[in-house]
Amino acid sequence: MKRIGEIMAYEISKTLAYQPINITTPLGIKNSYCIENQLILCSILRAGLTLHDGFMNYFDEAENGFIAAYRHHYKNDDAFEILVEYQAMPSVASKTVLLIDPMLATGQSIVAVLNKILATENPSELHIAVAIAAPEGIAYLEENLPENVHLWIAAIDEKLNAKNYIVPGIGDAGDLAYGEKL
Length: 182
Fold this sequence. Notes:
Largest sheet: 7 strands, mixed
Number of strands: 11
């Protein structure tokens, strides 16, 4: 996931706006460029942390935010609602937000997280970066997100199964990185 994050960060970096800067070195002045708009890397906990790490290798001056969203199976069956319960983020007003989550299954958690972020402030630009997506989740995002959101996907798998898990998928990304939930 970390390597995928690095590759995605590199590709996204090509689309960002840059401004000229002058860097003073011991031997002279170097004309260079830096990202014009302040970046915020925001990961959906806990699965997004390994992907986030790869993004930090490229955007090392970015601010960081974290938000928790999960499927709450309120009837102890396959039906669920998305709960967004924890958010630790700097202000996103007029900044570029990169929302990072390894899996895009139904798309409901990403929409719930973005709605929570957008409830109080408007970033200047929004990017969503996912490692693996299902076609159903992509369609859900296309129907439920503003047009100015940029979606970045490393791989598209076949479909969702009856439990809304990506097939073939990779399993639970958080469990694979950190072990099963207690």
